[in-house]
Task: structure prediction
Amino acid sequence: MDAIGAHRVGIRLSPYGVANSTGSYADLEAQYLALIDAMAEMRILYVHLLDHSAMGAPPVPNKFKFRLRVAFAGIFILTSGFDRVSADYSIGAGHADLIGFERPSVASPDFVERIRTKVDLNALDQEAFYAPGPKGYSGYPSFTAHQGH
Result:
């Protein structure tokens, strides 16, 4: 980090994730809390915490998420399974500084406008994710298309 500076470094964590044969194990929470403490001591820019439960993995307990949040004074990002209401709540309650929406933003090409104007997001087409062609990326209707603009 000396070469680029901690203020340019972030880490994405996925406790309880199940990708590549990972998953829960003894002392998982203690290990992640120790990691967060080390990242806080280094003063990295952000921690991005991914909860894969929206995709079928075991959920990251809310109490544990909050313990991680409290342990890290930098920018704290929560991702996965949020809608506008739950994102607003999480920011307002101090659970996160930012909320990541990933898949819902892909399904709504005018995502920012939909959030701003409180218009529902497009439904996700899980079968189209990572598929070749435009269907899963540019085939979703925009809000303005529904309004006749």
About this structure: Residues 39 and 75 are 12 Å apart (CA to CA). The two ends are 49 Å apart (CA to CA). Residues 28-42 form the longest helix (15 residues). The helical segments are 28-42, 62-71, 84-92, 103-107, 111-117, 143-146.
